[in-house]
Amino acid sequence: MGGVNVASRLGMRLEPKDPIVSAELLTYGNGAIVLQTTMPSTSKVSLVGSLVGHDPASQVRKSSMRFATYNIHYGVGRDGHHDLDRIAAAIDGADVIALQEVERYWPRSGMVDQPRELGKRLPDYWWVYGPNIDLHSNAGFPGEASDRRRQFGNMILSRTPIVGSENVPLPRAPGETQSMRRGALEAIVPTPSGAIRVVSTHLCYLSPATRVAQTEAIFDRHRIVAAEGGAWHGAHPVDPSWHFGDEPEIPSRAIVLGDVNFGPGDPEYAATIGNGHAPFREAWPLVRPTHAGATKDGERIDQAWLTPDLAAQVTAAWVDNVADGSDHQPAWYEFSF
C-alpha cells in the first residue's frame, strides 16, 4: 500500500512535495499505529495514527522514552531566586516527568498556581497534580471566598495522554515534629509496548523509620493495585450510563520516580529497595556505577525504581548537573520500549 494512502486512512497528512520511497506500518500491542516512511532527502520519519478513533496510545512516537524526576524546591534555586522558567527549561524534552515540592498559593513562591504555570510553560504535555497538603489560603486572599487553596505535593507530566490517575497518601508516625503528609501520585501512561504505571513520590525528610514505612506502603500498594483496580473499575450493576468503555486496566509494569531522601549507602536503602526481595529494583545501578549519580549534597536521593520486567529496558541514566532552578538536580533515565 502506498505511503500516502496509508497515511490518509490513519488521518495523517503528508505534503505532496515529499516523495515517499517506502512505507512500513508498525503496529503496537496497545493499538498505536506508526507509519514509518523513507524519503530521499531524510532519514526514516515516523507518523502516528490509530485505526480505532482517538486512542491515547496513538500519541506514542518512538520506541525509546526518557523519564525525568526533579524535586523543584517550589521553584527556588540555590541562589535563592524563584524562577519556574528554569524548572521548565531543565525538564523539557523528557517524555514523562515526575516533580516533587510543587505548590499552589504559598506566599514564599509568589502566591501562584505552580502546576498550572508549569503546564503553560510546557504546552506539549498532559499533566496531573496530587496535593498532599491542602489548606485554606487566607494569607493571600483574606476574607475572599475562593477555591484557591494552599497546596503542596507531586506532579506528573507526560507527552502522551494520562489515561488514569490516583493520589495515594503514605503513612507517617504520630507525634513527629514538622511531619507533613506525604503521598504517591500515580498515572497510567502509554508506551509503544503497552501502558505502565508511573508514580511520583516524596518520602519523609526527618525520620528513617517513616521512610521505611512509606517505602513499604508503596511496595504493598503495587502488590495489590492490579487486583484492586483503578479509581473506576468494572461495570455498574444497574446503571449503564456509568460505563464508557475507556476505564483503564492497571498495568503490572511500574516505575516509581521521586525524592526518597535516602541514598544507596543508607540503612533504609538496604532495608527496602536493596534487600533483594522488593517488588522493584533501582534503575541507576543497572546501567551506571552504584554510588554515582548524586542529586543533592553528594547523595543519590532522587531515584527511579522499576518492576523487574522493565530492568532489561533501561538503556541510560544521568544527572543534569547544570540545572540551577532547585536545591536538587534532575535525574534522567532512558528506556527502550
Overall description:
The model is unreliable at 1-58 (pLDDT under 50). The strands form three sheets. The chain has a six-stranded mixed β-sheet. The protein has a six-stranded mixed β-sheet with strand order 8-9-10-11-13-12. The protein is α+β, with helices and mostly antiparallel strands and 337 residues long. The protein has helices at residues 3-9, 84-91, 114-121, 208-228, 267-271, 284-287, and strands at 22-27, 33-38, 45-49, 64-71, 96-104, 126-136, 149-158, 164-169, 183-189, 196-202, 254-259, 281-282, 302-306, 314-319, 331-336. A hairpin with a 6-residue loop joins strand 9 (183-189) and strand 10 (196-202). Helix 2 (84-91) crosses helix 3 (114-121). The chain is built from six helices and 15 strands.
Q: What's a quick, concise take on this entry?
A:
The chain has helices at 3-9, 84-91, 114-121, 208-228, 267-271, 284-287, and strands at residues 22-27, 33-38, 45-49, 64-71, 96-104, 126-136, 149-158, 164-169, 183-189, 196-202, 254-259, 281-282, 302-306, 314-319, 331-336. It has 6 helices and 15 strands.
